[in-house]
Amino acid sequence: MSLNQVCTFLILFFATLASGTTVNLTSNSSGLLWDGEDSVSLQCTTLINDTSIWKLNGEALPHNRRYNITEESSGLISNLIISPVSRNDTGSFTCTTSNTNETSNALNLALAWSPDNLHIACNIQSNKSASSLQLSCSWGGGEPAAEVTMIFNNTKETANNTLMRDVHPTGDGNPIILHCEGVHVRANSSCSITLERPQSSDNKNDTTTSVKPGETTVLTLNLQAGLYAQFAWFHHDPNPVPLTTGGKYKIESDGSNSRLHISEVTSKEKGTYECVAMTPIGSTSFVFKLDVEQDSGLSGGAIAGIVIGVLAGVALIGVAVFFILKKK
């Protein structure tokens, strides 16, 4: 045995004695190892010439091109190079001697990766009853976990990955402002969201819909992106009369828009209609005007009779003119 081999043996001997076992596992890295980027070398040392079996979470290491195992000639050292590391390497690495079946200390890699999304997400949702709001700040999926801070009504809360909070707004119409901040090992991110009373870019409160008697028309309210809304329709005659589905009216709503169907329109249905959209923040009224064209009151048969009469009159005038000219 050469001097170098003797020195190596003594180093391994004292290292394994210090660890309290005849098999010792070490790593050349003590910092974070980034998924898909970094590499690491693990070294298994023994006091006897024996083959080492590498394991991850107690199972034999699977065949993978990222794993490269080499045995040194002394038979005392087995090296495992992982290039690149992956989040699949999460867990405990060990090496076990094949003959004496002695297992080393467990070694866990300090793996790291970025959150699932590039930026933190802000969100405000309401339930269908529109009685409460759920605020959330989310930036999950990273390792180590991102630190998430929610700022609302001049208060701050901090947690890992996700923060959620239920609030009961007063419905006074004041905007709700949510601000989220996220801190991860590699990046910082922030977002804000402001929600106001229901808004619509389609309805200007000054447009008039014209229909003919007997036709069907639909008055539609489309809200801008926001909270789940409830809707109420009224017909001003001249005072507001609540409308419900039945008879000539049919109302369809889905939380972001509402439609009022009016079938077989007559002059009685003309006038001003109002749709009130309600959310936990407050309510907004939208006005629609319906104009029904004047009905002549003549049936199709009557109109046909008038046309025939006119044509007959024109024909008689023509005959009279012919005989007058002939006498001359």
From TrEMBL:
The keyword Oxidoreductase does not apply. Residues 1-20 form the signal peptide. Coiled coil: none annotated. The chain crosses the membrane at residues 302-325. The keyword Membrane applies. Residues 54-112, 198-293 form the Ig-like domain. Keywords: Disulfide bond, Glycoprotein, Immunoglobulin domain, Membrane, Signal, Transmembrane, Transmembrane helix. Pfam families: I-set, Ig_3. InterPro entries: Ig-like_dom (IPR007110), Ig-like_dom_sf (IPR036179), Ig-like_fold (IPR013783), Ig_I-set (IPR013098), Ig_sub (IPR003599), Ig_sub2 (IPR003598), IgSF_CEA-related (IPR052598). This is Ig-like domain-containing protein. The lineage of its organism: Eukaryota, Metazoa, Chordata, Craniata, Vertebrata.
